[in-house]
User: Fold these one by one.
Assistant:
Number 1:
Amino acid sequence: MSEPRQSPDARGIEEEAAEWLIKRRDCEEWSEADQAALDVWLAQSWAHSTAFWRLEAVWGRADRLDALRQQEAPRGFAQMRRRVLPILIRAAAGVAALAVVGVPASMMLLQPELKATYTAPLGGRQTITLRDGSQIELNTNTVVRVAETSGERKVWLDKGEAYFTVKHDASRPFVVIAANGRITDLGTKFFVRRDANRLEVALVEGSAQFDENLGRKTARSALLSPGDVVVATASSLSVTKQNGRVLKDKLGWRHGVLIFDNTPLVEVAAEFNRYNRTKLVVEGDAAAETGIGGTFPANDVAAFTRVAQGVLGLKVKNNGTDFVISQ
Amino acid sequence: MAETPETDRGMASSLGPGPATSEVKAWFVREVLPLEPLLIRFFRRSGRTDVEDLRQDVYMRVCDAAMEQIPHPAKPFVLAVARNLLIDRVRREHIVSIEAVENLDALNIATDDPGPDQNLMAREELRRLQLALDKLPRRLRAPVVMRKIDGLSRREIAQRLGVSEKTVEKQLTQGVRALADILYGESTDIGSKS
């Protein structure tokens, strides 16, 4: 090449950035020392950080490719069939009988595109766009299954949390099933969060119907308007009105952040622990009740502990696997 | 939080949470990176072969400026930086090619079409990723597919391919770079209908 000033620099830096990225994202061993070394490298130059960010963005985009993982039988399908099929059949009663008998086979073999399982790993997020344009954003550690038929769109939230933006279609109801709850959209944006013993549904826009399924009967139901938050536990069901800011804070994860407003440290820790392998452990009641406010990257526990230490004056001990916070 | 002036940027040290840096990063990923096809095209049409180098310089300059204040909207700013950079280079090399520099405006207009709606974009995104995957050399494609579609670990990929984990790591390293070049550099049809 007769290039007057072909700098080897950019390519060399990019190679280094790629090595860092793959080591961090795709290799099993990644220590605190590695992270510190990467931080130093990134801070050395904009050339380093922009090269890294660029590749990181591409590699993150490539995570979407897992939407193509369909040929593989959805994990836990047998179990799902036992648990969900009765509901499905019941739900489909009003739909063509064909849909009912055809479901199991078509899900797996005949029309695999009708049925898909999507997951977001611990600390990850994923946005799914259905063929009708409706979107589902998965938060950390989340599994949903989606079945689209000509008469209905149905999503099972097996675990985790998801934000739904539904294209309303009166002839094809959009139904979300999570634990004992069933949400039927009437043109809507809402999120559903499923924890071990608790289900939370919050309506951001539009309207939706919430039904609680206990056994074969719909136990309770509510027509939700924007700002309504349903919290269902084994023993209780409540609907409260929250202002827009509270809902927005709860949805910080869509942008990769956790937003707290005078939230007790123990709850803050529980939130971070949904996103990270390195856990936050809070010791002592006084520390547990310390109120935390602010916006933090969900995937950066270390950054949070630095704030806890530097700003709040709490003690932070890193025992290798966890951060232990105490007063 | 103490700054570290010995680096080439006014970025908080790695120990600082550096909200400013994270904002710059978010802005960079969201608004600057999508302009890369345009930048690459601009530099190529100007007859440059040191495209990666120029691209890197643009990124460094815009992030440096963004540490002061994040430019909104990003596009005219980034393009102005690119244009100035090219003028600098051209001057330094004593090659007069004003014509090439002016082409930027034409390119700019061509990409000002309102983008497709979000849903189309999401579907389009998957299609683009698939196409990019298809363009990867076979040697790199297999490990990337196993990692991203099948969700296998480095160890599992190594076992399936019968190579060492180190080799898989190297292939993924090359894979992400190739993917970036395909997605950003060559996808010149994106965002432009001309």
Number 2:
Amino acid sequence: MADTNGSDAFVEFDRVQKSYDGENLVVKDLNLFMPKGEFLTMLGPSGSGKTTCLMMLAGFETATHGDIRLDGESINNIPPHKRGIGMVFQNYALFPHMTVAENLSFPLEVRKMGKSEREEKVKRALDMVQMGAFGGRRPAQLSGGQQQRIALARALVFEPELVLMDEPLGALDKQLRETLQFEITKLAHDLGITVVYVTHDQTEALTMSDRVAVFDDGRIQQLAPPDKLYEEPENSFVAQFIGENNTLEGVVKEMNGDKCLVQLDGGEVIDAKPINVSAAGDRTRVSIRPERVEYNKDRLSPDAHTLKAEVLEFIYMGDIFRTRLKVAGAEEFVIKTRNAPDVERLKPGQMIEIGWLPEDCRALDA
Amino acid sequence: MTDSAMTPDEHRRADEAATGPMLAADGRPLKASLNRALRRQKLRAMMLIAPLLIFVLVTFIAPIADMLFRSIENQIVSDTLPRTTTELAEWDANSGDIPPPEVFHALFKDMFIATERKAHTRLGSRLNYELTGVSSLFRKSGRRVDDMGEVYQDQFEDLNGFWKDGENWSAMMGSGSWLSAMGDWNGNKDAAQPIFEARGDIASTLPETTAIYSEFASFVLSEEDNVLTEDPWAVVYAALYDDLANGADVSGLSGNGAAELQEAAAAVAAFETVDFTAAFADVDEDWHSIQVWETIQTYSPNFTSGYFLNAVDMQKSPDGPEMRPENQRLHIMLFGRTMFMSLVITFSCILLGYPVAWILANLPARTANLLMILVLLPFWTSLLVRTSAWKVMLQQQGVVNDTLVWLGIVADDSRLALINNQTGTIIAMTHILLPFMILPLYSVMKTIPPSYLRAAKSLGATNWTAFWRVYFPQSVPGIGAGSILVFILAIGYYITPEIVGGTTGTFISNRIAYHISSSLNWGLAAALGAILLAVVLGLYWAYDKIVGIDNVKLGG
């Protein structure tokens, strides 16, 4: 699915730049190819340019430079209402003076569709989001989750091939958000529509998407399926931004094919996998996921380098244990272990030795 | 069901059923307890708003109520001519005869007293609203009425020197307690002069004399002169003559002046009398005009619908209310013009204000605030200055006409008449009232998120459809609020039409102002104002019925 060669791209950003004030680029040289039917999430902190990209795609902002193509055709000069792109807004943007049915009927009316056809489509769209009984209500009479369902139905009722969603679940509580995440992905896959989804919630991004584009500083830092993104972050921003992450800083001591030795600033030496380092002497920031850290000596390979660690805090979280350690001078080193009968429960003050597989520790840019 | 088989919830319910209303911890009903707790809060809230409430009552509600009361109040006629209006009640205007001599006799007394009090000119002006010429009739009569009474005064004084002296009169008319109080007052003039009190036996024997002497005494008192020494009015002698001629029995009297009264009672039969009917005709033959008396009679009651009838171009007639003659109708046309022009001004304000408010609401805050200052600038400029500026702009040799001529749009000899007519009023008032439209529109538009328009466009609506179907309906509450503000302000506007309106561009309020400050016909002004208020309230009610007042938002 994640074919990125561009030949069958449905949505395509080609060297797109955007500036609001003529001095700073909000989006810097963006290249993105999306095949039809893909669910792509733009993830990033606020101000990273993700929403701007979405607005350029929707036609509410114009690209300062570059081409945006939809199904092979440049849409730079096509006004938003002719693009035929469905859009779901963060605050739902349901028209308060119209009933739910009138809201859904609106895109069909402006397309000069006949009344009976309109009614049928509205009914089908409402049923699709399980809101069939609410056609006569006003948006203000609905709960947030119901409003979001209606907004979704409205974006889909005119059968667009591309649907944009701008943090649609941002205003909902956690439980509702999870239900709707599931519903949205299911709908998107059932209908075979292409979705560009903007969020700053990484869990949402990982659970919903086929691919995630991590934005920072106006650039895509990494574009990859969720698992790759989590397990193989390409730079320290992505490693830090996605999931929980431990970082240690040091200098590459020795390159050895797909392994390297890193000397930490405190003098300790560890194994790592070189990602963004090319030669000995490079400064690096190594990244390791909390659940990949091992402190049971039996499970570590005999020649692995280990680090001494002092247990600072042990938190029982039910399914897992979360332990905070002092490692190489850093006090924010966290490890996670599964709650299993054979796992030792650590005590604060206890001294342990930790280690990991070299491929789980990634030496990234400093 | 046994007790042990009940759940706790059932226990509670059973308890409640047994004890009736819910009780507070101290055993009193919960409702009473709650009311007690809230009473203090309510009291405090009342005290907080009390200053404003009192201020509004004293400076707003009371003056308006008083003003509205003037539109039906008509006590001036019966207050000034009490005896005449009583006598006149019997008279039938349709008989074709002038009122009987008793009426003229009463008129003499009333007129005399009114003239002394200088109240006759006020009544003259009041009646002049109803019948032109009454004012001068009253003024003329006031000057001559003094002479009429002197006939009696001279005869009494010729009869006995006693009657010449004011001190003899006061000694005769005053009660013992009043006289002694006056004696004390004479010793110490810093204190207030005691109020006159008539002697009991004189009051019962000479009622008319007592009544008029009392009025004389209270007048002298109000002038801060000494009642003891002041010589009475000629009309007092006339009243004494009336009492004696009517056969008052003074034989039983004793004390001050009893002997002189008895002497006079014997002499009055031979006195020369005055024919007041002829005397008033001698002053002005209008006193023999049925119309004058008809007017006085029509406006004798304490309350009148006359002002309101006048305010809708009608008048009273012996056959009930009727329309005024064609050439005297004015107010209905003025009301119509006021409504029409206010509507035109409101619509112009919507047309001009809507785009401005839209731009303000959609600009970045910094620029919007700057432009907002421009919108508000007129508020900080004197209304008179702005209106006068329009006079400069719009006159025939003014800036606008000069520009049009210079551009060749208008020929030099056919310059546009832009001022002293309706056009001038509409232009100037639209400008002056524009902020009242822009501000509510702006504050409503500010609350419409731009995402609605974006949503509409993403759904396939063109710019116009998105605006018309999505944005505009949401801005209607702002239009409603602005329109109500502008319309109600416009309908009562006064200064601008006065300055730039000429004769054809004035409003009903200018007429009200005229009656308040120039013609002093406050009753008519009050009636016009009351109708204007009723029209505004009626329109407000209609607006609520049609659009719904919930649909009016001033912001938020």
